[in-house]
Amino acid sequence: MGLASTVAQAPASAPPSGLGLPLTVDLPRSVDYVPEAHQLGQRLYLENCATCHIGVPPETLPSEAWRTLIQDSNHYGSEIQLPQGPSRALIWAYLRGFSRLKAEQEERVPYRLGRSRYFQAIHPNVALPSDLSLQSCASCHIAAAQFSFRPWREGGDP
Question: For the chain, what percent of residues have pLDDT higher than 70?
Answer without folding.
Answer: 75
